[in-house]
UniProtKB/TrEMBL annotation:
Main location: membrane
Membrane-traversing stretches: 35-62, 69-92, 167-186, 192-210
GO annotations of cellular component type: plasma membrane
Protein keywords: Cell membrane, Membrane, Transmembrane, Transmembrane helix
Start and end residues of each VTT domain: 57-179
Name of the protein in its database record: DedA family protein
Amino acid sequence: MTGDLTDLVDLAALGDLARSVPSESTQQAVGYPSLFLLVVFGSLVPVVPTGAVVSSAAVVAIHQTAPPLSLLVVFGVASLAAFSGDVTLYWLGRRGVRSKNGSRWLERIHDHAAPERLGQARERLEEHGVAVLVLSRLIPAGRIPVMLACLLARWPLRRFVRGAGPAALTWAATYQLIGILGGSLFPKPWEGVAAAVVLTVVISTAPALWRRLRRRTAGDARSEAAG
């Protein structure tokens, strides 16, 4: 009988302990590793909107009980993930450059680098060097052409790392600020996340749409001149 009472007390204590654990702890335990993996995956396979992921994580962070600490962790995780993904992709690309048959990673980098963007990246890389890597992380669709230009210029991994570090820090800070802005405008986290996602999508797609519009306008002007 005493053993049964002891077991019941132990179960009650465990239940109280489980209820006392804040939901934030569970969110952080799942959220931070997920943030890291998504950003790394998005760096290796440039189809994941990693900027929106970081902005959304920042929105969630500012609604937690210790926003400064949560934002600092989000910044650290996002920066480390972006840096790790970029360095890993560059290392895989270098293996493709050195091999006779190339590699699927090098082909993937080629596929995501338009010829005109690659030409511009090579010119800027020759003029400004490592600083171009920092800017390429902030320009939508600018990272891959610059990385390919570095591969074609046969930059050693050490030189690429010197630019990839500041680039990752700057990129993470920029998209975290977007998330803070979106989250501060709305009282509910999901509203801030939606605003941050929309804002990052607009930032990512606006330059491409502008270039397409300019090309179409230039083509119409040439057609009218020829006619």
